[in-house]
Amino acid sequence: MIETKEISEKQKDYILTIEEDHFRDLKAIDIRPGKLTKTISAFANTVGGEIYIGIDEIEVSGVKTRQWRGFADVEAANGHIQIFEELFPLGTDFTYTFLTAAGQIGLVLQIGILKTKQIVKASDGIPYIRRGAQSLPVETAEKLTRLQLDKGVSSFEDNTLDVPLDFVSDSLTIYKFMIEVIPTTEPIPWLKKQLLIKTNHPTVAAVMLFADNPQAALPKQSGIKIYRYMTKESVGIRETLAFTPISVEGCAYEQVYEAVAKVTEIIQTIKVFTEDGETTIHYPNETLHEIITNAVLHRDYSLASDIHIRIFDNRIEVESPGRLPGHVTTGNILKEQFARNGAIVRLINKFPNPPNKDVGEGLNTAFDAMKKLKLKEPLIVEKENSVQVLIRHESLASPEEVIMKYLESNPSINNRTARELSNVGSENTMKQIFYSLRDKGFLEQTPGTQGRGTTWRKK
Q1: pLDDT score of 275 more than 60
Q2: Residue 200: which domain range?
Q3: Predicted TM-score of the model (pTM)
């Protein structure tokens, strides 16, 4: 039984003014089933989304307006519902709700579509992807391969590379691994047993795990670049670079530990102003380690791009090539597990002191470590061809709390200091915060100060 829910006037107006985009679409009840399946396929194959069926769009004197015209009853929507049952035979990956609104005609069908593990095809046999407000067909072999990699249906780690077998089997890395972990066998038989050698060639996973210099076989798509920008601006530019970007190479295991060590070394040189004066910036080691590990293990090795770690005065950005795989989204990433590179994730865990000790729990550890330091949790952003994690050095406390705490041990505070402490970018915004604290009776303007020299003190 599908739930029927009555919504308020405000909620109805919100639906009628929705801007169709990457996540939402509006359809009339007259939409042809074949056309509807294209939208369903596009949402399921990208990041999921919402469809409202029962909204007309009409144009009067060149102006487009929306009108509510829903189904006469629940049974009238059976044809549309059957489409979903055909595309999702297990009855999962979507939700239904019928919406009614006072004074409006009929029932609007609200459908929530989740990002699926598998590729979903429309009724024409073609899968679609969502880009902005468009549902675009995946109609070439190249595009289909790209979608399979993005969804995690296939993994580039299984591809073989045209390099000699001894590039992996005779490396210092694999000999150290075999001696410490599996001393009872030789490299080649063991690699074959792990399906890391195919047709007498090593796979991408074999090279990333056991070659001494994977970058020779996978140039521009297997390393890490570290940048230090001496700014808090949203984008780093050449003029704010502190030094030439650092390249971190080697096998996946060594990359993780070397990158974490180098980032830690760099951030220890960054000074910040706090209520106790100038001090060295600090991020939890667990957070840096887990997020960099995640970037190395789950990146898409088919893309010709390195992992980019950008260190700013107030944040660290870790950008890993490839979209989130499978059914994982920025909304469920802390609860769901899906390994794009299953062999790399599984086998790196066999190394002594593996970087992924708690498989599947890394990001939760990273988030918890930030909370313990009373810093805002990391922000995960999915871009068109990458995933970026922002580790922000911003207090969980509100600007008001930061100001009052500072004044517990200091006689007064000015606008610039308050902005530095609370990461408020706008001078005018901070003025309004001061005025609000004044109006509430907490602060007063320091007598004799004005203009840019204005300071505030406890009342």
Answers
A1: no
A2: 157-216
A3: 0.76
